[in-house]
Write a structure and sequence with these properties.
two-stranded antiparallel sheet; globular; binds magnesium ion; 11 strands; Spore Coat Polysaccharide Biosynthesis Protein SpsA, Chain A; seven-stranded mixed sheet; binds cytidine-5'-triphosphate
Length: about 220
């Protein structure tokens, strides 16, 4: 089986408040998505990389000069829809059901090739596939009306990152079934009764989401 990376890059970046899609904001000399794609380009086992843009995107080419992978302007209203459309495009490019797809957020621009390699090593002989994730560090509270109604058991809770690696032939129907609202691939796979493998990610593999995240990303990228 071959391995492909699929990069959803069609969000509007509402929470980041960057005055435009956050994936095109610049940190440490280039756009977030350019950093992301450079990391994926360094993963030798990938047979191809596909970026999913909004149909009206006018910024990608300038933001990612030198990118030579596939570009598909088929993004949807939610991340799940963008990924589902990207998977369909991968099929059009000849990807087979047994091929692996590694879905990675454009906004996780601190990605290191070694983490992708670790995920591939851990999952390529697995029945289901898996994802990078980290154990939750903080005590968790259940809220009800602005007050704590319960303390949630933290032990055994992980926060999901990307890449998330599943076979095309499993992920496509899983996302169709799961609908537009799921926020990651693993939850769609879980809904079919499968148990994705948890592979330890890195604190640095955070998703640029809020305004403060740009500064942190900048500092970390500059000191590499
Ligand atoms: N994404 C996408 N299509 C969408 C929504 C999100 O391809 N309709 C992508 C984003 O571009 C990002 C990744 O999915 O790379 C993770 O999503 P998120 O961090 O939620 O980004 P945004 O949706 O852009 O941000 P926000 O939710 O704050 O608006
Ligand atoms: Mg979003």
């Amino acid at each position: 089986p071959r391995l492909f990376a699929l990069v959803p890059c069609a969000g509007v970046g509402e929470r980041a408040g960057a005055g435009g899609p956050k994936q095109y904001a610049r940190v440490a000399g280039r756009s977030l998505v350019a950093h992301t794609l450079a990391a994926l380009a360094a993963v030798e086992r990938l047979s191809g990389v596909m970026v999913v843009l909004s149909p009206g995107d006018a910024q990608f080419e300038q933001a990612a000069p030198g990118y030579t992978g596939w570009v598909e302007r088929v993004g949807g209203a939610t991340r799940a829809e963008s990924v589902a459309q990207g998977l369909a495009a991968l099929v059009d490019h000849g990807a087979q059901p047994h091929d692996w797809v590694l879905v990675h957020d454009a906004a996780r621009c601190l990605l290191q090739p070694a983490w992708v390699d670790a995920l591939i090593d851990a999952c390529q002989d697995d029945e289901v596939g898996g994802l990078l994730a980290l154990p939750v560090p903080d005590t968790l509270k259940q809220e009800a009306g602005g007050r704590v109604s319960a303390t949630v058991e933290r032990a055994g809770k992980w926060q999901a990152q990307t890449p998330q690696m599943f076979r095309l032939g499993l992920l496509r129907p899983a996302l169709v079934q799961a609908g537009a609202a799921v926020t990651d691939e693993a939850s769609a796979i879980e809904a079919l009764g499968h148990a994705p493998k948890l592979v330890r990610g890195a604190l640095e593999n955070f998703k640029v989401t809020y305004p403060q995240d740009f500064e942190l990303a900048e500092r970390l990228l500059r000191t590499r």
